[in-house]
Each structure stands twice: as C-alpha cells, then as structure tokens.
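DATA CLASS: polypeptide
GOAL: derive structure tokens

***
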Amino acid sequence: MSDTEQFKSLPALVGVNDERERAFKRPAIASVRVSPGPYLAAGSVVTFFSAMLLRAEFDAPALLLITLSWLLISLLALTDRIVFDGISLQRRGLLASFLHLLFGYRKQLAVDDFETVETQAVRTLRRGGSVRYRYRTQINGKGKQFVIISAGRDYRRMVRELFPLIHENKLDGRTRDLRDYLHDPTFLERKAQLSQLASPDVLEVSEAEFKLTGKSKRPLAVEATEATPHDFERAHVLRRLGNELRVSGRLREAGEAFRRALNVRPHGAWLIYDFARLLRSQASAQSDARLLSRARAALRLASIRAKNDLVLLPLIGESFLECGDARQARLALQKVIELDSGNFKARVGLADIALREGKLAHVIHHYHEAARVSSEQALARYARSEGEYYMQLNNDDDYLATELRRISWLQTVTRIRRLALRVTNFSVLLALAGGVIDPSAAGVGWSMASSALIIWLLTLAGTKALFHRSKPRSV
C-alpha cells in the first residue's frame, strides 16, 4: 500500500476504533458474574504457598501475601462480569480494564458473529423426583469463547434477553430449551399449582406405571376424535408446563404433565418428542438404562409421527445422538436431506455421525455443503473452517499424526492433572492431621503436597496449550 493510500485509510480506521469505543460504553441490558472457579483456584494456590512460608517461619511475608492476594482476588472476582448490551457480549471489570490498558485487548463478540452455542447440564443435587441443575453455556465465535454459568436471576435475565436473538441453527437442544422454557421458580410453582398436578406420593406410583403405548379402554383414534378444542388447548398448556418443569429439574411433576397431555393427544409428534427428552433426563438422573431405552423408543415413534416436518426431524436426529443411537440419527437426518438438501442442521449432524465412524471424506462433504447452503455468515464461516480442518487431516498424513499425538497428550495430561489434584488434597489433609500426631508425617505431607501442586500447575498450563488445534505446515 502506498503512502497516499495509507493516509486515505486513516479516517476509516479511526472510525472503526471510535465505533468499538462506543460499543464498549453502551449500557448493559443483562449481565452475569464470571464463574469464580479460576479465582478460587488462584486463591487456593496462594494460600498454600503462604502456609509454606508460615511453616518456614516467615510469618510477616506470609500474612502480607495472603491478605493482599485474597483482597485483590476477591475484588477481581466481584467485578468480573459478562455484559450484554443488545448487540454484543463483552467482558467487563477490573481485570478486563487492566488487560485493555496493558495490552489494548478487549474481549467482545457481536451476536451475529456467534458460531455455536452449547449448554451442558450438571446435576448438583437430587432429591426425590427433583434434580437441581447447574447450566453451563459456552458461546464460540471468531476464535473467542464466553462461558456463562447459571446463577439465579441474572442468568435468567441473560437467557431471556440474549438467546432469542441468536440464529436457530446455532443453538443446541439444551440451549433451545432454556430459551423457550426457563422461568422464575416462584412463577413456575404458581403455574404448577393452578394446573392441579397430583401429590408427590401419587406421582411416584404413576411414574412407574405410565407407558407411552399403554392400553386404554377406548381406541386412541376414538379418543382423538372425541377431543374438543379445549382439550387440545389444555394439552398444549400441559406440554409447555412439562417442558418448563423438566428444565427446572422437577422431573416427576414434568412426567405427570406429559402423561395428562398424552392422554388427550397421543399422536402429537412434538409432544412425543418432548416426552422422549424427559425420559432422557430421567435416565441420566437415575442412571437407568431401561429409561434410556424407552427414550429411544419414544424418539422413533416421534420420527414416524413427524412425517415430513423439516423443523422437528433435525431435532429428533440430534436427540438420537444424545441417546447414543447413531443409526436412528442417520436415518432421521438423511430423510431431512432427501426433503431439503440445504438443511444446515442436518448436514452438520451427518458430519458428526461420519466423524464418529471415522469417515473423513463424508465429514468434509457435509461441512462443505453446510457452508454452501447457509445464508448466515457466521455459520458458513464455522462450517468452512471445520471442513478445511478435516480436509487437512485427510490429505496430510503428517498433520494427522500430529493431531492424534496432540489429542493423546491432552488425554494423558488431563488424567495426570486430575490425579495431581487428588494427591494435593490428600497430602494437605495428611499434613494437617500429622501436625497433631507426628511431626515427621506432617513433613511428608507438605512435601507431597508441594510436588503434586507444582505438577498440577504444569499440567494445567499444558492442558491449555494442547487444547488448541495445531496449525498446518505452510507449503
């Protein structure tokens, strides 16, 4: 570029920078606190080294280190937030301001640049027929990643404001459920009371006896014919209530809501699909293979009832994959491709199945087709990058060997990191207990804990380094 062209481009560059500054100063519509896990880990490491200084009789430096460190860590954790301003997600707080001041870096991602949004549900407590879920939503795009952890009202507000703006093809099943069915617990409790669901004792018996295809005194066709519009409306309300109860972890009450809805509409494809997802949640919560088998059967019935529904069939295929049935997932997704060869979700799902079977050529084909048919720029960019990555693996044996080696090292380092953490915790307990019983046991415990902690820190850094894909060699 000549000097004249560079001079002419300066106003445009200044305008881009000003736009970024204005975007960062937009008021927040919703915000959630960043997960305190990394801050707690840093505080624990600092506390350990402070204890080592105290053991070496450096009392003043140890007390100063632990006091200042925990004050700073607490301040950083309390101010570190992920903010949504209606257009983009941003990382704000003291740590984000410090990184911007030091390196000129700001973590920001526009909603249109989201590529994938995936949510994981972690069970934290199970009591009776209810499960307490902790949701972890991961948003990826343009090499950036945001992780949002469920934390009460702030998380629900973020879901309500952000998720409806994200393109449907970027959402996985759990994220879609949160977008449509996550509500305040108080509101959901009132709604469940108005629906007059049975008591928990009755639900426990009915849950064990209810079957999707159970016998009835009247034929199902007669039941469907005799159902009034009011009955169909009630079935719709009960289906929505069942999904809301399922997302909130009240699985037994959700089963009762679906049972009542299925008594009115036993042939509803969407209703059977949602009931299958409930069975999948119950199977996971109870570690019950029989319930998982019933979930697969319900999904097969839903795929038959769905006929040519191009919205429902890709979701059924995705749920089949969650249940571990790749064969039925392929059948459902291939049916979608036969009806609509430009369906993005079906193409990506078939690529995932082909990857599990080791068919790299099919993976490349499906990703390239997904990139070709997608009208969303971020989705096309994501599918194109995935297709190019697997094409590089398919065409370059050295690169394939490098990636396999990286994945093997990552698995090994992850196992060592988990073992080192367990050894550190055990050694600290041994050192504390040994200090009361035998001083020599305390010394052994502190030595083991120091070595294990150093190994844990090294493997933590190794995990972060090995997590990213290797760059192919330039020819």
Observations:
- The radius of gyration is 27 Å.
- The CA atoms of residues 324 and 351 lie 15 Å apart.
- Residues 185-397 form a domain with the Serine Threonine Protein Phosphatase 5, Tetratricopeptide repeat fold (CATH 1.25.40.10).
- The chain has three domains: 24-181, 185-397, 401-467.
